[in-house]
Amino acid sequence: MKNIESILYLLLFLPLISCNANSKTIASDTTKKQNTYVNTFKGDKVVKTDEEWKNILSESEYYVLREKGTERSFTGDLLDNNSEGVYVCRGCGLPLFGSESKFKSGTGWPSFFEIIKEGNVATDTDYHIGYARTEILCGRCDGHLGHVFDDGPAPTGLRYCVNSASLDFEAKRKP
Length: 175
Description:
Mean pLDDT: 86
Radius of gyration: 16 Å
Helix content: 10-25%
Oligomer: single chain
Low-confidence stretches: 6-18, 21-25, 27-31
Largest sheet: 6 strands, antiparallel
CATH topology: Metal Binding Protein, Guanine Nucleotide Exchange Factor, Chain A
Order of helices and strands: HHHEEEEEEEEE
Strand content: 15-25%
Structural class: alpha+beta
CATH superfamily: Peptide methionine sulfoxide reductase
Distance between the termini: 61 Å
Number of domains: 1
């Protein structure tokens, strides 16, 4: 029975652990569990009831965007997307990341080294798995996107680790 419990534990928490492997979180003070929400979005916010969100999002999208869930690693539909274009919030369509900032991190989630525009991504400190991580959210609708870490490539040194379920992709139009 103990082996089954150990296996279940790994299946439930391995996706959360692997995204954090060999990285430090941007949030450095784990002793203070204070609200550190920062949102500098300039524009109209998108606010909907839970029922309205459930009507426009699939079950997995709702789980990630509204309940701050995490999709299993290596399962997202945008992980291996190499097309040119823009990654937008699946909840409200706000542009978040350009394809030129996407890179292979090996974590199993789409990763980006910079956001497309200042203010489009908000941050908060997340303690859901027992230690501080910097959560990233859509600046317009506050949808949960993933987390940001300081082990990314130059020029920023950041790794925005994002759930595919929180993104849509808009391919670059040919002239």
